[in-house]
Specification:
Chain lengths: ~240, ~450
Amino acid sequence: MNLIELKDICKTYHLGEVDVPVLKGISLAVGAGELVALMGVSGSGKTTLMNILGCLDHPSSGKYWLDGEEISGLTADGRALVRSQKIGFVFQSFNLLPRTSALDNVIMPLTYATEDISDREARQRATDLLKRVGLGDRLHHDPAQLSGGQQQRVAIARSLINRPKLLFADEPTGNLDSQTSKEVLQMFQQLNRDEGITIILVTHDSGVARHAKRVVRISDGLIDASTSVLETIAAGGPIGGAS
Amino acid sequence: MKKWYRTIRTALHALRRNVMRSILTTLGIIIGVAAVIAMMEIGRGSSNAIQSTISSMGANNLLIMPGTAASGGVSFGAGSVMTMTPEDCDAILQNCVSIRAGAPVVRVRTQVVYGHKNWVPISIYGTTPRFLEVRDWSILAEGEAFTDRDVRNGSKVCLLGQTLVRELFQGESPIGKEIRVKNVAFKVVGVLARKGANMMGQDQDDILLAPWTTIKYRVSGSSATTVNQSASSADSSAQSVNSLNNLYPGAQVSLYPAPSATQAADTPLPVRFANVDQIMVAARSSESISAAILQITGLLRERHRIHVGEPDDFTVRDMTEMTKALSSTTVLMTNLLLCVAMISLVVGGVGIMNIMLVSVTERTREIGLRMAVGARGRDILRQFLVEAVILCLAGGAFGILLGRLTSYLVSTLLHWPTALSITAIIAAVAVSASVGIIFGFYPAWKASRLDPIEALRYE
């Protein structure tokens, strides 16, 4: 069964009296355990699509099934619940809480979780995750005391705390140098391989997309082609994610 | 429950992330609450001082007079029946909870002699030591008050008012001296403090206080003012002051030969009971006066066996004018303080709202992130609201300490009267919490309405 299924998703923004269609009927299916790169130039609509996929926004028309559940009709609170239970986010600019330890940053989403987790369990889970991303010795460091790569790894640990089925990474390497980019991307691959977490990488960089098993290209609000990773390599993108 | 605990912890954490700003924010509330507490305590102290001043003038005093005797259509005026007893006074003290103190009073008006000086004081009161309590007169200028034992024994001791001391002694200390009241020698045991004129301009220091038993049985014979004419006719000559000749030929002629001392001792007058001229009591406070009147009326009707529907054989008088002045002072003070309190707390609240709005704007990305990881609008609302309330409560707590400290300093350094006001503390905490909720709501609501996508992109 497909984890994500989109059918004729349209999104139109109303700017004053002008209607700006951003997504013009996207149909897409992503199976559980896939590692998909969502590619497109600025203004192609990839961010809008990610917002809809990540349940941050609702489509103007069309249907969206996530894990067998119809999402497009949910209220804002309903979408918040879905985000809390099934989705993790990694952002380009890390978005860690300042002056807050790595551990507390990772625990934060549990505040809004529906499942009842004791404090001790929460700390244990966060510690395990931080160890897994290689920050077992940085539990009590503030974001300001961590390097960019370390911060992004904290963000990854945070996105995993709710044990999501689906992970969105919006330009995860946009603020990192090539070496750390590579490490972060390898971590995504590893998570996908070992945990079976479905990951969607949103990027405009084909070097990043190279790490995905499948590339979905968006241009002008429509899906261009869904290609395999081999084709991407064949296209000859630069290796690494420096941008 | 756990959710609230987590919210509070998150809020505390958020506040700790910006300690300086949190402190500055609460400063408004701290100063507001401190001002309220200090003002309330100083104000209450002043109010108490004013009230005790007014009540020392007798505002809380009640005067219980016997009723009117009438004979053949002739009424003898207020206080002319002899129904009031010292036991009534004891019963009132025992049974009426709204009464602070009370004393029976026997009045005579006669000449007081010391050496070659003489004087007729306005009041010669036979009473008990508690009279001083009733009139807030317990602190004597000299010597000490007579005691209950003196009252039981009918001891010939007295207290003098300042005017009487001046007229009789002229600078000499009167303590231990003997004065004569209608040829009865009284030993002066104390001198009352100066009280000045009362509201009617009557000199309150022109007074002699002695045990009521002494005045009643040794001086007056029968009571001076409650004598109705039929009773007084018999011994009118004995009552008159220093009567060497008959000044008023119109006075009734004695129908019977005057009994000799031996005859009088052999045939004592039948004593019905010892009546007093009036009972003076003090209510606990100006608010309890009406309750006190009800209690006294009920008790005395019962004691005097007055049936339902029959008129009272006594009247209870209160100092309505002074009581009104007293309560209007209190109301004025309370309203004044309330105004000050409200203004400072509103100012503090606006400060909180201001900072919370800034905080919401500054933390837009954080709000976006929290929403992205699953926070609903109401979670955000609750978090910011809790932050505001915590700020206000912390401000309230520090404000109480600061306010107490201020009023303590004011009372020790400036010697202003202050009084601890629990009401003020409770009100301050309640108001600071509600200020937090009211002024924290708008920013919190604004935060909860943010669009997560916009918020995450906010720079």
